[in-house]
Amino acid sequence: MKILSLRLKNLNSLKGEWKIDFTQSPFTDNGLFAITGATGAGKTTLLDAICLAIYHKTPRLGLLTQSSNEAMTRGESECCSEVEFEVKGKAYRAFWSMRRSRGKADGKLQGAEVELAEVEGGKVIASQAKKKLEEVERITGLDFDRFTKSMMLSQGQFAAFLNAKESERAELLEELTGTEIYGLISERVHQHWSESKQTLIALESRAQGVQLLDTAYRESLNEELSSLKNQHGTAKKEKESFDQCANWIKEKTDLAAELSQTSQSLINAETALVQAKPELDKLADAEPAEQIKPLHDKLSDIQNTHRQYTESLESLRKQATELESECKEVDAEVKVSESAMQSTKVAQQALEDLITQTVIPLDSDIAQGKQKQSSLQSEIHEKNNKKHALDASYQQLTTKLNEQSDTIAESEKFIEQNANLKDVAPKLEGWKVQLTGLENSSRELAEIVSNLSSLGIQQAEQLEKQKKIESELELAHSELKSNKEKELQLSSSHQALSGASSLEEMEAQQQTMNQQVIVTHQLQGLQERWSLVSNEQQQLSQKMAQQESELKLRNQQRDSLREQYKSQNELAQSLAQLVTQEEHLAVYRSNLRDDQPCPLCGSLEHPILADGAVSVPETIAQKEEAERRLSELKHQGEALSVEIKSVEFQLSENQSKLSAGQTELEQLQLQWNQKLPALDTTIDIVTPSSAAILTASLEEKVKASQSQISQLKAAERALEESQKQTSTLSDKAVQLENQLKLEIKDTQLMEKKQQDFAERKQKLEAQRLEQRQELQSAMSEANLKVPDQNVELWINELKDQVDAFQNKEKHLSELRHSVTLVLAEQKNLDSQQSELTDALNQLQKHLVETSDLLNERMAKRAEVFANKSVDDERLKAREQVAQTERSTEQIQIKHKSLKEKQASLSGQQSSINNSLSNTTVSKSQIQSEWEQALSSSPFDTVEQFQSALLPIEEKARIQQLKQSLNDSVTQLKAIQESANQKLSALNCHEKAPEWNDIKLEDIQNQQTEAQRHLEGLTKREGEITQELQSDDKRREEQSSLFEEIEQYRVEYDDIQYLHSMIGSQKGDKFRKFAQGLTLDNLIYLANKQLSRLYGRYQLQRKQGEGLELTVLDLWQGDNERDTKTLSGGESFLVSLALALALSDLVSHKTSIDSLFLDEGFGTLDAQTLDIALDALDSLNASGKMIGVISHIEAMKERIPVQLKVTKKSGLGISELAPEYRFNP
């Protein structure tokens, strides 16, 4: 990056607009230049302007904002800065400006205007502050901090890196080289390692928590599932049977209710039909009237039509009479209009003959006369104008001739009066040189007098300043002594706090205790889990004992039920056999007869007949009771078997849980034993809260250790601050001693300068007197005296007088020639005036003749046609004819329209007469038909007929009522028939006899019980299926889980290895490693610079101290010294080497081709200063442009190219040389 040019306006003391082009001479001739000027003149302002244009802030003021702008010149309303710089061969322009509102010095600050653009083409890259800074950093690779530490070293920044603490030096290295990415990488690696570790622990925990069913239990579940499926089928069929029965009973009940409701509704409908009979009779009575109603309506229509025809015929007759009268009136109007139209046409023809034969010829002659008259008048006016112009020209020539004559007389008089100036012109340049020399001598003499006076004042100030420095030096020595005593006390306090252990050992002990606290927290978690699992194991053991007792009881109950079932089954079978035998014996008994032998025993006596019949139904009832009891025992046994299997399953499951719990307890004990050695103590996992007690104890120790470490760090910081202050005070004392020596030397230099100025003054006074006498002798010949002051003004005035004399002579010759020319021109004008007067007289005569003829013709035209216009009169005549024609045409149209209306009325009368005749005939026929129909109807009069008719709405209502009642009866009868048919179908069902005696409530209870039983089977079936599927899934997941753990462990091993090398929570490990490499590179570059600057010292890293620096004294057998032991001048040289190395280090992003150094050379002696300047010359020779700000006279003498900043006395403002003032 190279600075090409700088333009600034109204910044600090530099008022006005200035531009420095570093691509022009003298900067291209010598890349090393000095920025010089008095203290406060504004030298550093130039560097501030560069920073403002590129980064909107300065090292001294920071960021300039709308609320704070201390850089703008006081009393100004705007300021700006513009820098052109080059990166990689491409030029860019950075601009910054800020102004106050309304252009007033007390106006409110407005927001800054910024811009970054390409110089070639002017393409704008950014016009917003944030975007511009991002683009600058992208293009240059430098942010503000890197820029001010690599290209522009501002005041106090030389030793910033050398004297920085380790942490501050690390931050500087990060800012300069962009190595902050290494800290982020270290933090990310640590975060990745922590996440991977937690993930692996979670996977291993999942693997330990997986529990599988044993094979025997799975087989028992499968057997139970198969049995449940069979039971489910049987229960489903039973449920469906109950559902059919319930539906049959419910449907039959619903049909009976529907049939009853329908019968009642049918009775209600028939009753409504009877109640509506009066209204229905009205409808029946209206039917004869409705039959003859069309004929009556037809008669009414024909009567209305006959009446309308009669009225229309009477109206047409009236209209015909009125139309006849109107036609007569219009006939008269037609005749009058036609007569008026003929008269108008005759008048128009007479007017046209007058215009054609008389008026138009006169108008033509008048127009020609006026045209000729106008032409003559124009020609006369033109001739008059030309005559006036000639008169004016003649007058001007006369005036000019008089003026030139006066000027000639005046010039001749001036030449005569200033004849002595004729020979001055050749000598004027020589006199000017001599007078300028005299003025310069006077100015130099005045400057010497002023310098002598100023030196006297400065000498007094110097002596005062020297006394002040001596006082400050004495105070510095006193403060240094006091601070060393304080440092000794702090060192004793630090030693007392640290004791036998160092801070690193204490921090290591604290780290060990922190790790032990983590382990105790883990042990506490293990102990809590162990206690929880132990309690669960005890509860499981108690629950299993209860379940075993319950299982034993259930087995005993099932054995008892089996014995009862066996006995009951034998009883049921014997009763069934007995019933069968009784049925056969009953047949034989029925065939027994007295005195006949028994077919079984042959006996003739039959006592059974005397005792009565054997009670067979009672035996059947006993049999059915025995079968019912047998069924109950069977259901009880099945239910008990289900309960036994459930208890066996629970017992097996609890046994698995007990085994898993025991395994977990063993794992917990194993983990406990693995972690316990890290604590250097022995505690039992069985003892409650032993880990918690140990944790509390260790945490107390950690707090105590942290407190002690904090105190020790505070003591170290205080000691370090005191040591730093001692070093600062020591440097200050050395600096004051050097400054005192310089002040003494400056006093001696002032005394020598005073003597030199006095000698120079005496010599100049003698030389000036000799030159003045010689010049006065030469000027006496032209009657001139040497001026005492304002020589340049006197020379310029004399030169003006000489020039005026020469111009007068030249102008006099020109005037004499001009007078001759004017006299000739006057003679020519006299001839032209005579010719023009003759022509005007002739034109006036022709004009009079033409005007007389024109007036005669105009009088005749007025007599014949007055002042009327031919076109207007013709137009009026045509309009009158057209108007009479339109009026006649309108009347004729009206007449024709009336005739057409008469014909139309006549036709309408004829048509209506015919229609009236036809209507009269039709009316008689219809009247006859109506009277015949009325006589045939049950009505005697028309009034009876009309009263029998019903209104349309009433008729519709009664018809709708009749239809509704009839439809309701029909529909209810159909519903009744359908319900009877459905009821018959239900009674025909095969199980109807069986279902008739069953109550709906009973069958619904059986339904509910069957549904509950079915749901229980379904639920148990689902539970077993779910348990088996879960076990299958756990078996599958366990296999994949172990594979996942193994794969993840490989990945974890990689990240753990990476973490051990570069990972840390705060990113310190990798950051320090990268910064160490960067520092080694920086030391290498700095030592290369030091070898050219000052071969005595070399830098190196302090062994085992991170980023600390030391210096090797090559002149003292490579003795290693602390950087704080360097003197002020040595510290400056080392710092300068580091600054140049930092600049080279940053050049990996951007080549640094410009370097600005602000102060820092004041602590160097003459020899060291020569060394520093030689180094700067060598850098300049390598192609860098280097600008140096300093007050040192030796530097000003060594650096020929200087950019001077001059203070204006008493104004508080400064300026550069005139060639740098910018004029847009």
Q: Which range does the strand content fall in?
A: 5-15%
Q: Average pLDDT across residues? A: 79
**CATH superfamily of one domain, called what?**
P-loop containing nucleotide triphosphate hydrolases
- How large, in whole angstroms, is the Cα Rg? 70 Å
For the sheet with most strands, the description reads: 6 strands, antiparallel
Give the name of the CATH architecture of one domain: 3-Layer(aba) Sandwich
| Shape verdict | flat
Poorly predicted residue ranges? none
CATH class of one domain equals: Alpha Beta
CA(first)-CA(last) distance: 27 Å
Roughly how much helix do the residues carry, as a percent range? Answer: over 70%
Oligomerization state of this entry?
Answer: single chain
Give a description of the structure.
The protein is an alpha+beta fold and 1224 residues long. Among the domains are: 1-141 and 1151-1224, Rossmann fold, CATH 3.40.50.300; 426-477 and 720-788; 505-679, Helix Hairpins, CATH 1.10.287. The protein is 74% helix and 7% strand. The strands form 4 sheets. The chain has a 6-stranded antiparallel sheet with strand order 2-1-6-7-8-9. A hairpin with a 2-residue loop joins β1 (2-11) and β2 (14-21). α5 (180-208) runs antiparallel to α19. The longest helix has 141 residues, at 277-417.
